[in-house]
Each structure stands twice: as C-alpha cells, then as structure tokens.
C-alpha cells in the first residue's frame, strides 16, 4: 500500500476544486472497492478526497414523474426505500442480490457505478493487465477466464463490470447526473459505461475531474412484470457469472414494451435494441423469449473457460423473461429458480 | 478546512502524510486518537484501542469477521478508514454485554453451540445485532441471505441460524 493524504470535501464545488488541483487524487465515498484496491496496490492515489459527507443523500420524486437518487445514498437505503420497493422493485432486487448487507450499508449509489472489474488479473499486480497498466497485455484472454466477458470484448480486455445495481439501472434507462469544472451535465445510462476497445483503462465516460451527484429514474418502473435473476458460484455473496434484468409491459398476453439487460457478460450492462424490438407485439411465450435471447447474445464469443456462459445466459434470459411475464420475480432468499 | 497551496502540497507529498486526530465513541466511551489516513477502523480498534474482539480475517471485505456497528449499522471495519468516521458511534463485540449480562445474541450462540473455532463469532454476533435492528429478516431463508456476509469456515451455519432465531424471538 502506498501512503496517501486525506482531505474532506465540504460541498460539491469544493470536491471538484480539490480534485482539479491534484490529478493523482481520488474521491472516496463508501470505499468498499477503492480501499481494497489500495490494499492490493492496484490503486495508489496521492490523496483521498472524502465525499461521503456531501449532502447528496435524498431520494425524491421528480416533477417528470420519476425519482432522483442522491449519489451518496447507501445501497441498502436505496433498496429498501418505499418509492423504490414499490415502483422500481427490479432495482431493489438487483441491489439486494449484490455483495453483503455490511457492504451494501457502506457502498454509495454513485460508487456502485464506478466499481472496477473483479477480473483476477486486474487484481494481480504480478501479471500483465491492460486495464491496470495500459499496453502491458491481457492475461485473461489466454488465462483463467471463467468469469470473463463473452460480449463486446476486445483484444485488449475481456473484463466484466461487476455491478448488479447497474444492470437494473440500464434496463430502467436511468440517467446519471454529473458535475465538473464546466458545470453540470447528464449522461444516459447506456452511454455511461464503455466497452474496452483499445482503452480498457477507462471504464466510464465520466471525466476524472467530474463527480456523480445523482441518478435519475424515469417514470416507468415495470413494477408488475419484472425479474432479476443472478447465477453465481454460490447462492449469495458472490459476483454474477450471468445475471438478467427483465422488465415487461403486457397487454393481456401481448408484449407492449420490453427491457432486457445482462450482467456478468460484458464490460458494461449488455442490452440490444434488436432483442427488445423482437419481443414487441409478440405473445409472451417461450418462442418469443428464445428469439430475444438469441438477439441479445448475437456475436457472443467464449474464451475457453467461459464458453459455458453463452448457453447459461441463453437459458437465464428465457427463464427471467418467463418469471417477469408470470409476475413471479426471482426471490433473493428462496434460491430455487422457478 | 484549511487547504494548502501548490508549493506546499508538493512538499507534503514528498513526506510521510501527517497523522490525523479523530474522536470516536466506542462502546459508549469517548475516545481520542491520532491515526494515519490509511488506518482502517479495524486497525484503530485493535491496535490503538486494544479492542481485539473484532477480528481481522481476510482484511478485504470477504469474510465479515471484522463486522462492527457504526451509528447502528453493521459494516466491514476492514474497508473503513478511521478518519472517515470522525464523531461516529461504534459498537464492537466488547460493547454488547450490559451490566455483566450477556447480550441475548451472545447467550443464544452459547445455547446453540453456534461456533467451533470462534474466530468469526464476534463478527457473526455484531452482524446479527445489525440484522435484528434492520428488521428485514423473518424466515430462516431470509436470515441466511442477510447473514451471507459472514463466513464461518467451521461450518456452524445451522446453529448460527438457530441462535439468531432464538435472539429474534426474545428481542
């Protein structure tokens, strides 16, 4: 671990000012990922700027009919908030399927978006990794890649984004509010995270001197027909091998609107407009779900150990859409997949 | 907060960062200590305050042995910087018994033989205290799910669930 200095930011403007004066500084909120990375010498900031006390802790309805979530709202507070449990249960279920209650108590909403990958090689400083050390090579492509990506990969990186919350936020088409030296701007959730390409060191389109202030949910929460199914190596407290967020709007048996996002398979929550379009106007049945799964997994490629993810994802997509259509979302405590 | 100018900052980064005085309330006692910016709450408790009941297992937020209550919520003290908890109220395993009486969870863990080696136990009990305060777990399945952040390598899980159920019924 590299020694670092510590400073507390008094408000958002102060936080932006402080980060601008020291490019090797980092913001810290919940710290659940950053402290771990510092301990492993993957991160070595000169200074931590504590933003955990910023007044960004409210969850409020917006005039547009959605909900605005402060970036410092702890994951548990978000998951259990009546507005979220009632109107956006997909988000609630996704959050509660990630990490442990202790970590969810610590982790912030904004920080959840900025989690780094859990690729073994990113954490192992003895091995090359283009995300940790650009240009050094990717150890996962020909290495132990059971947990790695099958979609949107590049020759430089096959890491996945580890968040569950973000898979639901992608499906719900949330908006990320950020502020930087040039002022405030919003980023559509689909544009927030990046594919690795030749710059896998950049996970997101957030600039280094910008700070996330809030996440906005649009009015539609799909609270009647949704499910979040997470497949992992143990039944709780493990990252997803494959996860699926499915949300449907039904008119009888007919699909009027569909949202589908995958976790654990790509550098960002994975969506496909073709997959969602393929469900529109269709009867909500296994045939339609299988077609959507094929579209969503179009171009999927295994790297050896993770070949199983393609078939697993296909079956998980079909099952999750079925759960959503039946109005019987996957339970987080009863682990049976029905 | 005083902020240093550029020249001063450059000088400071070349030296060892200064220690920072903090105040914590630990098990009802006001504590003042001076810690390095990178001192975790876990190390502050164990090495600065001699409260070694809180255990260092993995030190990476994967085992839950370091679980303590901060302002009433269970967290992993190994991933928490002490300087970030300025003014917070901390409860550790040492603070659960009251007036010589074991906390209902401590008694329940004994009654149900809910440990073998005991290394994870203080974290399990603090986590369970947080779980009961949250009020989200009702069934055994829900207890198992919401206690999943505490690993027991001896595999005492069935007895841990039984102990927590007993304490929940009596709380």
UniProtKB/TrEMBL annotation, chain A:
GO terms for molecular function: FAD binding; oxidoreductase activity. Keywords: FAD, Flavoprotein. Residues 1-222 form the FAD-binding PCMH-type domain. InterPro entries: CO_DH_flav_C, CO_DH_flav_C_dom_sf, Diverse_Substr_Oxidored, FAD-bd_PCMH, FAD-bd_PCMH-like_sf, FAD-bd_PCMH_sub1, FAD-bd_PCMH_sub2, Mopterin_DH_FAD-bd. Transmembrane segments: none annotated. It comes from the Bacteria. Gene3D superfamilies: 3.30.465.10, CO dehydrogenase flavoprotein, C-terminal domain, Uridine Diphospho-n-acetylenolpyruvylglucosamine Reductase, domain 2. PANTHER family: OXIDOREDUCTASE, XANTHINE DEHYDROGENASE SUBUNIT C-RELATED. This is FAD-binding molybdopterin dehydrogenase.
UniProtKB/TrEMBL annotation, chain B:
It comes from the Bacteria. It comes from Bradyrhizobium retamae. InterPro entries: 2Fe-2S-bd, 2Fe-2S-bd_dom_sf, 2Fe-2S_ferredoxin-like_sf, 2Fe-2S_ferredoxin-type, 2Fe2S_fd_BS, Ald_DH_CS_CYS, Aldehyde_Oxdr_Iron-Sulfur, Beta-grasp_dom_sf. One of its GO terms (molecular function) is oxidoreductase activity, acting on the aldehyde or oxo group of donors. This is Oxidoreductase. PROSITE patterns: 2FE2S_FER_1, 2FE2S_FER_2, ALDEHYDE_DEHYDR_CYS. It holds the Pfam family Fer2_2. Residues 20-96 form the 2Fe-2S ferredoxin-type domain.
